[in-house]
Amino acid sequence: MSPVNPLDPVHPVESHVDARARELARIIWDHLVLSGPLSQADVILALGCHDTRVAAHAARLWHEGWAPLVIVSGGRGKITSGWDETEARVFGRVVREHGVPEGALLLEETATNTGENITASRRLLEERGIAVERGILAAKPYMTRRALATAQRQWPGVGWSASAPELGFEAFGADERQFIELMVGDLQRMVVYAERGHQVPAPVPAAAWAAFEELARLGYDGHVIGRPVPPAGS
Fold this sequence. Notes:
The chain is α/β, with parallel strands linked by helices. Helix content is 40%, strand content 10%. The protein is built from seven helices and five strands, in the order αβαβαβαβαβαα. It has helices spanning 19-32, 53-63, 87-97, 114-127, 144-154, 176-195, 206-217; strands at residues 43-47, 70-73, 105-108, 134-138, 159-163. Strands 3-2-1-4-5 form a five-stranded parallel sheet, sandwiched between helices. Helix 5 (144-154) links the parallel strand 4 and strand 5 (159-163). Helix 1 crosses helix 6 (176-195), helix 1 packs across helix 7 (206-217) and helix 4 packs across helix 5 (144-154).
């Protein structure tokens, strides 16, 4: 399967997502999206995924001079398992198309999840003798908070910040149901992965957790760990 961007906003919003689900999803979005000032860094780490707009954003950060090196990390994940190429190869091509030279780009092609994005990239850079004191995580908007919490656990001692393409909630309407299910899963992982030691603890507001529970009961549980919430009407 050739890589595509299934979140391209030119596609129509999925009609089977109702207003209540969107309302709840916005509550989760508001918590997961993290924004803040950036600092000069040693590396821009682009977290591989199915949305190539993240790669374009990493290239933009490089052109703006935030760091001299871009590393794109990703093998194949839950959404990209059918791609012909690794996420890193796809992202690498996009980054090069946006003007980042080969000498400023590294590919890490083994990671299958966010934690491995961090640990495998750390290992690659250490093998090359590249010291990192500060890093910028380039990710989807709704992955910024979890990516930062993961990096702080998996690569402590580095001053991390997170950055995402300037996209609003409405920009993810190509497959709106998948978008909501991914956010539901990410919100749950903020709690579960902190308990398992995969990321630093990051409190989840009661309203966001209630939105997670209701969306899971409504059937938006495709990426819920263990699917512990009974379906609506049970």
